[in-house]
C-alpha cells in the first residue's frame, strides 16, 4: 500500500486541560459552571448577524468522546486509538477510490465492526442534548461523529453531520445511496468464511465492546468507526458487491463514454469495471467536506450566541475552525472534554477573573455523567429568555440568582 500523502494530525499527546473557572475542577463545580454558561441571559456581545440569530442559545459541537459511553471507540482519549496505537492510520480517500485491494481491506474490517456499531444506541449524554433542545437552551448541533446517534436521539433538533454517517453507502460514480444493513447482508453472502469467523467472534464475546484493551485480550485491534483489525489476516480474498444502480444502468464517465460494470458469478464487483464502487457515506481522510455542509455549519455558528464543545479534542481542522469562527465573533466558548484540546488556551486567553462561567468554561469531565446533572438543574429553573429578567437556578443543593 502506498505511503500516505498526508499525516494524521495531532496523534501525539495534547497539553493538559486548563480548567475555567477554577472551581470547575470537581464534578460539582463543573456542574455549576456549565449551568451558568448555558443560562447566561445574553453573554454574547457581538452584533446580531441574521434574522435567525438568537444570542441566548448555544450551538453544540460534538466529537467521538460523547459516544464512548455507548461502547464506541474514540481517537485521542485515554483509551483512544491514537493514544494506544501510534502506528494506526485510517484509509485515505484516494486509496479507497483507486485501489481494489485497499477496498477489500476496508470492507473486511468494517464487516466485522459493523455489528457493534449497529447495535449501539445513544447514551445519557445524547439524551441530555435532546432535553437541552426541548428546553430551549440550544438551537442546533454540529457533530463530527458518523454514528448518527444525535439524529436517533433527537430527530427534531437541527443536526449537521459534518463528516457524514456510516449507516448508509453512496456510489462514487452515480451517487445513489444504499442502506448499510443491506450492504452487510450482501457482504455476508459473498464471504461465507468471514461470516463464520464473525459468528465465532460474536459467540465468544470478542465484539461485545470497542474497548481497545478488551479487544486486544481477544486477539483483535479496535479502531474507531467500526474498524476491526485482525492481526496477520489476509484480506485479499474478501469480496464486495457492485452498486446495484450502476449495474442496472451503467453511468457515463467524465469523457462521455459509457462505464463498464461487471460482477462475478456471485455478484461481487469485478476489477474490470470502470464504475459501480460504493463507499461509506462519510468524509474520509483526504476527502473534502461538501460545500453545503460547510456552509450549514458556519450558519449554525452565526445563528447562536455561544458554542459548547462536547467530547472533541478539535484535532481536525474542520472542527477547530468552527470554534475559531465563534471566537472571531466574540461568542462565549465552552468546552467539556476529557483530556487536552487543540489550541484551547487561545480560546480563553482574554477571560478575566470575574468570569464565573457566563463568558466561558472548560471542564474535564465525562459528558454522560455531567450533562444529566445539568439537565436536572435546568428543569428546576425558569426557561431561558431574551429579556434579561431575573432567573433562579437550582444548582446542586445551592440556589443562584442571575440577571
Automatic annotation (TrEMBL):
Catalytic residues of the enzyme: 163 (proton acceptor)
GO molecular function, one term: NAD+ binding
Domain of life where this protein originates: Eukaryota
SUPFAM superfamilies xref list: DHS-like NAD/FAD-binding domain (SSF52467)
Pfam family, one: SIR2
Gene3D superfamilies: SIR2/SIRT2 'Small Domain, TPP-binding domain
Full protein name: Deacetylase sirtuin-type domain-containing protein
Amino acid at each position: 500500500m502506498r505511503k500516505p500523502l498526508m499525516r494524521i494530525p495531532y496523534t501525539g499527546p495534547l497539553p493538559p486541560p486548563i480548567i475555567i473557572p477554577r472551581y470547575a475542577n470537581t464534578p460539582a463545580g463543573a456542574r455549576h459552571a456549565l449551568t451558568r454558561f448555558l443560562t447566561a441571559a445574553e453573554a454574547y456581545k457581538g452584533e446580531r448577524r441574521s434574522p435567525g440569530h438568537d444570542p441566548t442559545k448555544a450551538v453544540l459541537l460534538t466529537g467521538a468522546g460523547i459516544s464512548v459511553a455507548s461502547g464506541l471507540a474514540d481517537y485521542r482519549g485515554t483509551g483512544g486509538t491514537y493514544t494506544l496505537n501510534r502506528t494506526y492510520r485510517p484509509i485515505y480517500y484516494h486509496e479507497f477510490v483507486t485501489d481494489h485491494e485497499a477496498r477489500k481491506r476496508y470492507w473486511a474490517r468494517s464487516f466485522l465492526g459493523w455489528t457493534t456499531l449497529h447495535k449501539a444506541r445513544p447514551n445519557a449524554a445524547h439524551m441530555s442534548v435532546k432535553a437541552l433542545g426541548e428546553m430551549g437552551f440550544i438551537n442546533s448541533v454540529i457533530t463530527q461523529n458518523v454514528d448518527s446517534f444525535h439524529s436517533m436521539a433527537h430527530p427534531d433538533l437541527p443536526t449537521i453531520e459534518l463528516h457524514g454517517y456510516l449507516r448508509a453507502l453512496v456510489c462514487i460514480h452515480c451517487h445513489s445511496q444504499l442502506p448499510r444493513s443491506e450492504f452487510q447482508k450482501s457482504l455476508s453472502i459473498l464471504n461465507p468464511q468471514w461470516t463464520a469467523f464473525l459468528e465465532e467472534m460474536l459467540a465468544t464475546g470478542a465484539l461485545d465492546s470497542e474497548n481497545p484493551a478488551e479487544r486486544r485480550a481477544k486477539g483483535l485491534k479496535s479502531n474507531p468507526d467500526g474498524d476491526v483489525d485482525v492481526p496477520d489476516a489476509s484480506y485479499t480474498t474478501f469480496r464486495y458487491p457492485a452498486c446495484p444502480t450502476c449495474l442496472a444502468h451503467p453511468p457515463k464517465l467524465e469523457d462521455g463514454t459509457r462505464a463498464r460494470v461487471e460482477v462475478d458469478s456471485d455478484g461481487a464487483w469485478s476489477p474490470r469495471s470502470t464504475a459501480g464502487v460504493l463507499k461509506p457515506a462519510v468524509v474520509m481522510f483526504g476527502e473534502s467536506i461538501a460545500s453545503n455542509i460547510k456552509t450549514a455549519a458556519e450558519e449554525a455558528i452565526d445563528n447562536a450566541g455561544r458554542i459548547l464543545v462536547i467530547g472533541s479534542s478539535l484535532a481536525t481542522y474542520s472542527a477547530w475552525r468552527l470554534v475559531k469562527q465563534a471566537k472571531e465573533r466574540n461568542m462565549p466558548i465552552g468546552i467539556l472534554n476529557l483530556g487536552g484540546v487543540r489550541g484551547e488556551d487561545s480560546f480563553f486567553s482574554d477571560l478575566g477573573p470575574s468570569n464565573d462561567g457566563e463568558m466561558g468554561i472548560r471542564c474535564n469531565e465525562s459528558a454522560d455523567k455531567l450533562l444529566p446533572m445539568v439537565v436536572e438543574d435546568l428543569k428546576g429553573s425558569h426557561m431561558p429568555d431574551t429579556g434579561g429578567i431575573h432567573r433562579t437556578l437550582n444548582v446542586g443543593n445551592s440556589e443562584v440568582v442571575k440577571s
